[in-house]
Amino acid sequence: MEIERAKRLAALPPYLFAEIDRLKNEVKARGVDVVDLGVGDPDLPTPDHIIERLAQEARNPAHHRYPSYVGMREFRAEAAKWIEARFGVSFDPDTEVLALIGSKEGVFHLPLGFVNPGDVVLIPNPGYPVYRAGTLFADGEPYDMPLLEENGFLPSLDEIDSDAARRAKMMWINYPNNPTSAVATREFFEMAVDFAGRHGVILCHDMAYSEVSYDGFRPVSIMEIDGARDVAIEFHSLSKTYNMTGWRIAYAVGNPEIVSGLGAVKTNVDSGVFEAVQCAAIEALRCPQSVIQQTLDVYQQRRDILCDGLREAGWNVEKPKAGFFVWTRTPGGRDCREVASTLLNEAGLVVTPGVGFGKYGEGYIRMSLTVDTARLEEAVARFKKARL
Ligand SMILES: *Cc1c(COP(=O)(O)O)cnc(C)c1O
Q1: How many angstroms separate the alpha carbon of residue 237 from the centre of ligand 1?
Q2: CA distances in angstroms from 220 to 10, 189, 330, listed in the order given
Q3: Is 239 in the pocket of ligand 1 (CB under 6 A)?
């Protein structure tokens, strides 16, 4: 029998990261000691008190049954409290907060609740690949909003084609940004909320890196903007904040109709998050937030080692204010795949070619700070020797 995949799978852009893994493993197989700056996954452990809470709650048989679809009331209330303490905006845990199996899950499923075939979804390029994948699975039409360096990697909303703006149902934005590490101003968020209101567009803000920032910079929530509650949903995740990527827990807050539409999709797809994990997440949100600062001190030190070292090696890099990636132009703006492959073959360095995040990422590479200082120093030494 010939097994044929659905057209929607064929329509997805080729998965560049699988190709990078293949090349990396080839080089490793030759016995080369590879320094991998390609991963986007925290290397530091989840704080002990969170693990302890999971261990304790896992023993409670009450948690062994199907959880509530929308998340435990206590988890949603704790999330709302955390958001209020952090951003000064209050949400009703019963109608405006929804638990997610990681924010990737919510980001992917949201268009299934709101996008009809042919509806446009405005997507940042370069960007997190899930915005495009979720759009294509919902038979939506992705429309690229270029993130250009000269605009601080913020989309130019006035340059969105008027036909696309008319047909748009949703817009994705993501600050602090992956892959560029750019941060947004309050003024940009005001323009985005205004645009969404004028065009009847659901504004979706992915804020996975809300707590990962340096030098005293504190990212703003789109929910702080007047009028946001009429048009927006914001995705928050415990993954990057508490080094919990493997735990799969996140939540969305925002407009109750948008939140309930996503909830309606999810009741047909999944059966919620293991309650013991939700209890551990409550622990994370409730406990002194100084554990976050310990993680940030580590990233900041790594950022300085990598950026200072790259500058000494002749690269023109800027230190990111947020996120755990360094995003920089390739020397002379050269083809990013060629630069990545030269770095791998000549220096045993894995970096991510920017084009893996969309065509406007061409000419850039992304390097991750989720690698310890000894390995970053080794990486810097190799950058200094590499002949590009
Ligand atoms: C890591 C990441 C996420 C996913 O986080 P989970 O909550 O672990 O699913 C979402 N958006 C961006 C931009 C990310 O980098």
Answers
A1: 7
A2: 38, 9, 30
A3: yes
241 lines ligand 1 (CB under 6 A): no
User: Is the distance from the beta carbon of residue 104 to the nearest atom of ligand 1 less than 6 Å?
Assistant: yes
**Ligand 1 binding pocket includes 174 (Cβ within 6 Å):** yes
Question: To test ligand 1's pocket by mutation, which of 100, 110, 130, 237 has the most ligand atoms within 8 angstroms of CB?
Answer: 237
Same domain, 81 and 172: yes
What values do phi and psi take at 322, rounded to 5? -160, 170
Q: Are residues 182 and 247 in the same domain?
A: yes
Q: Does residue 2 fall inside a structural domain? A: no
- Average of per-residue pLDDT across 266-272: 97
Is the confidence at residue 387, as pLDDT, over 90?
Answer: no
**DSSP SS3 for 194:** helix
Paired tokens of 353: 């070619």
Pair 143, 162: CB distance under 8 Å: no
Closest approach atom of ligand 1 to CA 249: 7
> Domain check: are 117 and 103 in the same one?
yes
Q: Would you state the structure tokens that stand for residue 264, as one six-digit string? A: 């309606």
Beta pairing, strands 202-206 & 168-173: parallel
386: Cα separation from own chain's centroid: 30
- Give the pLDDT confidence of 23-53 residue by residue, as tens digits: 999 999 999 999 999 988 999 999 999 999 9
Domain CATH code at residue 298: 3.90.1150.10
Domain assignment of residue 242, given as a range: 48-286
pLDDT-above-70 percentage for the chain: 100
Cα 307 to averaged position of ligand 1 atoms, centre (Å): 24
Domain end among 286, 314, 344: 286
pTM over 0.90: yes
Q: Whose CA is nearest to atom 11 of ligand 1?
A: 208
Q: Return d(Cα 56, Cα 117) in angstroms, integer.
A: 46
Establish if 142 belongs to a structural domain.
Answer: yes
Query: Is pLDDT above 90 for 10?
Result: no
Q: From the alpha carbon of 240, which atom of ligand 1 is closest? A: 1
Inform me whether the pLDDT recorded for 15 exceeds 80: no
* Total residues belonging to the chain: 388
> Does the pLDDT at position 20 exceed 90?
no
Task: Count up the domains in the chain and report the number.
Answer: 2
Query: pLDDT averaged over the chain?
Result: 96
Give residue 346 CA to ligand 1 midpoint distance, Å. Answer: 31
In this structure, is residue 165 part of a structural domain? yes
The residue nearest atom 5 of ligand 1, judged by CA position, is 103
Expressed in angstroms and rounded, the spacing between residue 207 Cα and the centre of ligand 1 is: 8
